[in-house]
Design goal:
The complex is a heterodimer of chains A (about 325) and B (about 325). Chain A is α/β, with parallel strands linked by helices and about 325 residues long. Chain A is built from ten helices and twelve strands. The chains are: A alpha/beta (about 325), B alpha/beta (about 325).
Chain lengths: ~325, ~325
């Protein structure tokens, strides 16, 4: 079998709080093949951003492994990790907060190359900055503008150009289009997909928007309270969602079409429970309409139901 | 046909900037809302949706903004010329507003019970303490919150529950018109579904008319009777949900909006995009305001402002493409 580019093994991140351990990421196993996109969906507070950052070691995991081309990067020392960071980058959610307001567009894009010393001369640096700006569709004249002069869509392009500056192989996209208007969102999504093709990038795409994730991903992981409840190839997940939570998520999306309005909606009750010291068994049990005594008994194993389709539920 | 509740005629609102520039936020907007009806007001950031709502509530920031033209009638009363004292009575009783962010629209140092009671008390001066407290309990039950939590503060509630509190406050006096400004944008999808469901039920129960401001066409399809699409401060297309979602003739901007949403049913490799950006409201283009981004732009669009064309029934479009009753 082909070696996946990114793999995690039982990755965990607990945050200490006065009330106990907050299980932000709790035993995630995933693998992403080179050139593929893994979509990670879930509601706010389910740990999807923490997962993305833990994989990049922007947050140190509590336990578990992150394998990059089969090599565990958790054990890397600082120098080795700095080399590693050139290959893995992140695009942040908020194009307003993730850019330094006192740096110009060209300075922001140039910074990773200066920090990692990937260019030898000032001229090469400038050429590279303009090349990147061209790649993400930013006009040359904007090079000396400051972020506040630009709109959200253009700012997000700066963030994307900065992430591409070091020719990475793997990019974590943490809700890159959530803060944008639909027409701008479509432009950004198209660009991300074009870049993936031309640069052979691997994405981990974190979002709460299922229609976006369906559009861009090859594989989708549904998270709930720090655990993966279902993982499956994209088409499979939308055709036959198995976990009750996935079904509820899919039902809850407002579809911009009248045909589907008549269908009776299964709205799940209640809200996401606290991730601090969660009970054993399935974490969705408090909201699940099909819950039974078996659900709370033991810690659930995630099972492969059909080819590549994993689900963590006692019903399967 | 139902009675007209709200009528807006040729409304124009401007904001003045510190440098003396003039932002044309709303440009000649006509709109009617009938009793008990839900109207979706759809558009991107900066289209002027919220400004319209604030104009109806007469809550526009005083020194920087001004209604330069047009009238707003609510139940026959001219809101644009009403005094502040009249407005105080009307706000809450005749119309009320749900704001986008339930985190910031509640007072953090008042219990939610007090905040709901404030509304009840202000509009029912003859109520005694017991009556007010009973009404608060009743309202909390209505929005699906346990009444024994009324002594808690907003930070003790989740986003969805806070939005329920806001809904309870806005419905306290059973207003005729509810202005909901992106009420579910800050919420997760499963919670959004719960809140929308609640709003739909309550609206039917009280026969409240609602203007739902949103940028999410999915939400519109599920909740609204009629839809108005806004672009650069004016309505470019208006019609029933069936006209907008299933009709064949659309404003190119509406087409673009629909093309931009990733479709869950049909897989598409590339999304259609609307090229370019929203025009700068301090410097709007001549003729049709959408022409610099329009894929079907003609010479006439650059010079002549398009008039409203009736497509069919209530379906109206502001676009040169549809002159002479051309339906194709």
């Amino acid at each position: 079998m082909e070696q996946p580019l990114i793999e995690t093994k039982d990755l965990r991140k607990y945050f200490k709080t006065p009330k106990g351990n907050l299980h932000a990421v709790d035993g995630i196993n995933l693998s992403i093949k080179k050139g593929n996109t893994l979509g990670v969906v879930g509601e706010s507070g389910c740990g999807k951003s923490t997962l993305g950052r833990t994989i990049l070691r922007l947050i140190e995991p509590t336990s578990g492994e992150v394998l990059y081309n089969g090599d565990n990067i958790i054990g890397y020392d600082k120098r080795k990790m700095n080399q590693m960071r050139k290959k893995m980058q992140i695009i942040f959610q908020d194009p307003y907060a993730s850019l330094n307001p006192r740096m110009t567009v060209s300075q922001i894009i140039a910074e990773p190359m200066i920090v990692c010393k990937t260019v030898s001369s000032r001229r090469e640096l400038n050429e590279r900055v303009y090349e990147l700006m061209d790649k993400v569709g930013l006009a040359d004249r904007l090079a000396n503008s400051y972020p506040h002069e630009l709109d959200g869509g253009r700012r997000q392009r700066i963030g994307i150009a900065r992430a591409l500056a070091l020719n990475p192989e793997f990019i974590v996209c943490d809700e890159p289009v959530s803060a944008l208007d639909v027409s701008i969102q479509a432009q950004s999504l198209n660009m991300l997909m074009d870049l993936q093709e031309s640069m052979d990038l691997t994405y981990m795409f974190i979002t709460h928007d299922l229609s976006v994730v369906k559009h861009i991903s090859d594989q989708i992981m549904v998270m709930y309270l720090g655990v993966c409840v279902e993982m499956s190839p994209t088409d499979d997940l939308f055709k036959s969602p198995l976990h009750t939570y996935t079904q509820a998520l899919l039902d809850a999306i407002p579809v911009p079409s009248l045909k589907f309005c008549t269908k009776t909606q299964n709205i799940i009750k209640g809200e996401i429970t606290s991730p601090i010291n969660p009970q054993s068994g399935c974490r969705f049990v408090t909201r699940c309409p099909k819950a039974s005594a078996a659900c709370t008994r033991e810690n659930l194993e995630i099972k492969e139901v059909s080819q590549g389709h994993f689900v963590a539920c006692v019903l399967y | 046909m139902a009675d007209k509740l709200l009528e807006i005629n040729d409304l124009e609102v401007i904001y003045t900037t510190e440098e003396g520039g003039i932002v044309n936020a709303v440009n000649g907007l006509d709109l009617t809302v009938n009793e008990g009806e839900t109207l979706g007001l759809v558009g991107e950031t900066g289209a002027g949706k919220t400004t319209v709502a604030l104009s109806i509530m007469k809550l526009l920031p005083e020194r920087v903004s001004r209604i330069t033209k047009g009238q707003i009638f609510l139940g026959g009363i001219d809101v644009t010329n009403a005094t502040e004292a009249d407005m105080r009575v009307m706000r809450g009783a005749a119309m009320s507003m749900i704001f986008q962010d339930p985190m910031t629209s509640l007072n953090p140092v008042q219990t939610i019970g007090n905040q709901i009671a404030e509304m009840v008390e202000l509009h029912n001066r003859d109520y005694n303490k017991k009556q007010i407290s009973d009404r608060v309990d009743e309202l909390l039950k209505l929005v699906g919150l346990p009444a024994d939590r009324k002594g808690e503060y907003p930070h003790q509630f989740s986003g969805g529950m806070r939005q329920r509190v806001v809904i309870a406050i806005s419905l306290a006096c059973e207003p005729k018109l509810l202005l909901a400004d992106e009420p579910t944008t800050a919420l997760d999808v499963t919670i959004q579904a719960q809140v929308l469901d609640l709003m739909n039920k309550l609206k039917e129960q009280f026969n409240t008319a609602m203007i739902l401001i949103t940028h999410d066409l999915g939400v519109v399809a599920q909740t609204c009777d009629r839809v108005a699409i806004m672009y650069a401060g004016e309505i470019v297309e208006i019609g029933t949900v069936a006209d907008i979602f299933e009709g064949r003739s659309h404003h190119p901007y509406t087409e673009g909006l629909f093309g931009s949403i990733p479709n869950l049913e049909k897989p598409t490799r590339r999304l259609q995009v609307i090229e370019g950006l929203m025009p700068d409201p301090t410097n709007l283009p001549e003729g049709c305001k959408f022409h610099p981004r329009c894929p079907e732009c003609m010479e006439i669009c650059k010079a002549v402002y398009p008039e409203v064309t009736i497509i069919e029934g209530e379906h109206r479009v502001k676009c040169h493409l549809f002159y002479n009753g051309d339906h194709s």
